[in-house]
Amino acid sequence: MFKSERVFDDNLLLSYFDDGYISDRIAIKDSEIHVWFLDIGNYDEYHMKSLFDILTLDEKAKMSHYVHVADQKRFLVGHSMLRILLSRYLAREPDDIILLNSKHGKLYMPQSNVSFNISHSGNRVALAFVKEKKIGVDIERMNSLDDYSQIAKNFFLPPESERICAQTDAAKGMEKFYEIWTVKEAFVKALGHGLSRSLKSFEVLEQGTINDYTNNSRYNYYTKQLSDNYLCSLVVV
Fold first, then answer.
1. What are the domain boundaries of the chain?
2. Does residue 230 carry a pLDDT above 90?
3. Would you state the pLDDT for residue 8?
4. What is the predicted pLDDT for the residue at 89?
5. Which of helix, strand or coil describes residue 158?
6. How far apart are CA 143 and CA 164, in angstroms?
């Protein structure tokens, strides 16, 4: 899978790939966004062992804290492939990549102009990269939710929950819910605020914009629906 398209008002070029496009050296320009979609089901036991060897001791310890095998696999593929991709972008070995956590838990690489973010759900992992900016990505499998409208009323602004409830049927309402939810998650991840940021402090508008009421600023977002009922949203700030 490979596709490129112009997005956002500042005319950034968004390209998304799968792991079949990983090469020894990958270039990313200041005007580009790269998003990699990985399917955990494509990695057999041999590949998993190779990926495990790439993790640091600290990462292996964090992986072992997950009780469920599916969660361990998501962590393994996400963090090892993050190291591999950063090594290709920066022309370094994977074990030379130093990753730190911000005070709100966002991974970053010190003294690097490449910003990245990671998200996973179900069998999918999304890894997003950009230069000289901050980026957030969120991918979700759109599982059926009977109470999505109530969740929206509890966590979203009234205009957002009203848009969800105004959809013509439950399936479209749930899809709109996941769209707004993933955009909100991607936005707070881009800023590095995590759970410290109220989801009601900014509004997800139509036509791909976010209104941040804390500083009266607007940002752009992009949403893509994938096969197997996955939805991914991306925000650059």
1. 2-138, 141-228
2. yes
3. 58
4. 95
5. helix
6. 16
163 Ramachandran zone, left/alpha/beta (phi>0; psi -120 to 50): alpha
| CATH architecture entry for 2-138 | Alpha-Beta Complex (3.90)
What is the pLDDT at residue 157?
96
pLDDT in tens, 70-104: 999 999 999 999 999 999 999 999 999 999 999 88
Structure tokens at 144: 């059926």
pTM for this entry: 0.93
- Tell me the CB-side half-sphere exposure of residue 30, using CA atoms within 13 A: 3
Token reading at 176: 């709109």
List the structure tokens of 30: 């200041």
> What is the C-alpha to C-alpha distance for residues 180 and 75, in angstroms, rounded to an integer?
25
Q: Where are the beta strands (DSSP E) in 132-194?
A: 135-141
From the number of C-beta atoms within 10 Å of its C-beta (0-12, 13-18, 19+), residue 58 rates as: exposed
